[in-house]
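>> received
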Amino acid sequence: MSHPARTGVAAVLTVRTRRVLAMATAFVAAAVVVAAPRAQAVDKVSNPPPREVRGVKLDSICSVCGVVSDVRAETRDGPADAKGAVAGAVVGGLAGHGIGNGSGRTAATVIGAIGGGLAGNAIEKKMHHVTVWTTTVVFKDGTVRTYERDSGPSVEPGDVVVIAEGHPARVER
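>> returned
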């Protein structure tokens, strides 16, 4: 036979544990959404291939050449080191420890530390920005490719280029 007082305490503990788990799940889900990477552009071929890009006729360039159609700078979240994750885990663990009793407190501490670590990592990434330059090149066959670098490119829209060491390089005409 169960003791009525124990059943009431167990029911309250279960409700508290459920509440903590629900809050932690929502917190972790929000951290994952914030930390999710952005989609990258993919290479594509246009149908039919263009005949001219930025005033340059594609028929007039070499078979491995392309024409720069666009150059743009973009600010992105930078890489994070462990400091944000560790600080977030400590704060989340302390916050979780303040909730519940007994095994519920232990679960809340662990969940708080995990959620805090994820959130701290995402916040740190948002605080460190890097500038990335994206150069879009249309090749003679109509293929469009994008190239990224962490410094300003030495090419401009309308330049005829070849790919050297993984990046567009101007061709003297």
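>> The chain has three helices and eight strands.
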